[in-house]
User: Fold this.
Amino acid sequence: MTNAALITVLGAGSYGTSLAMSLARNGNKTVLWGHNPQHIAELAKERSNEAYLPGIAFPDALVLEADLQQAIAASRDILIVVPSHVFGDVLAQIKPFLREDSRISWATKGLEAETGRLLQDVATDILGTHYPLAVLSGPTFAKELAAGLPTAISVSSTDPQFADDISHLLHCGRSLRTYTNNDFIGVQLGGAVKNVIAIGAGLSDGLGFGANARTALITRGLTELCRLGEALGADKNTFMGMSCLGDLVLTCTDNQSRNRRFGLALGAGKGVDEAQVEIGQVVEGYRNTKEVYLLSARLGVEMPITEQIYQVLYENKSAKEAALDLLARDKKGE
Ligand SMILES: NC(=O)C1=CN([C@@H]2O[C@H](COP(=O)(O)OP(=O)(O)OC[C@H]3O[C@@H](n4cnc5c(N)ncnc54)[C@H](OP(=O)(O)O)[C@@H]3O)[C@@H](O)[C@H]2O)C=CC1
Ligand SMILES: O=C(CO)COP(=O)(O)O
Assistant:
């Protein structure tokens, strides 16, 4: 491994691989690390990630690395793309290897498991305030990104130079368009809340409700996201951007979304475990529902859809009863 890579991606699942391919297609030497050495050896041999993105060849500038210390040493910029429930563990693992000039970004969507903290607070808690932080978020299904289909994403950072640099590495002028956004909190929050509402949209469709119900859920789900965002100090312009409205619409309306498919399976009568096994990849919204619901309760923010989905997932309430309870709420001003 040479030390000249421009960016190291941590997490060789569907999205980490897809982002690493996008970065490498732009000619940036990109290191992709995963925690399973056998899987990394397979990726290096096949020059594709058959388990997650079958049939899409890696660009030449993509380098595989199974050694975490080497992966961190290779690049100044680090992009973490692991599920939110292991985000803190991965930060703790990389901490001893970080360079003085390291900059840390992530594309993980969610809040910290159990605490409901934003991932920026997890990062600052574990790493301190020395390293610039950045987040990428938006409507970006891994498979479409990997296939080179047109996609747009937001980048936000504690350091405007870091946001510009990450944006420059990703933006390609053909298929991937990046927008910088100064609202670090808002860009993180959208990805967590949309996962919850996407489960609701899947539940609704799984129950056989129609397009009216799905669209009402998306619209009122956005209202819940706005309320929570305002309580956390997010900028209201962000709510209409890629990381909030954009990702909410994407994941609520297309069956590539694992969260939506999870809701569909529950709506069709399957259990939580059965639905997760069937999907076979991370379903962030399952945990995110608990964290978003508890956060809203702590902050006193009204989020009735989130509350009902929480009761379905964690309190054994039937999806139909949850829908009836939502519909039975007093009429009110929009
Ligand atoms: N897929 C998508 O379209 C998008 C995903 N995201 C977000 O990206 C994040 C990652 O999701 P995604 O790639 O889709 O998930 P996948 O389920 O496709 O892959 C998750 C990856 O994380 C790895 N992993 C699990 N635990 C650890 C750990 N402790 N250390 C290192 N790696 C670990 C898994 O390894 P193993 O296979 O060995 O378990 C797997 O390679 C999520 O927060 C998701 O919301 C954001 C936008 C789009
Ligand atoms: O975040 C995503 C697209 O932007 C992926 O959504 P799912 O995790 O629901 O598959």
Observations:
- The chain has 15 helices and eight strands.
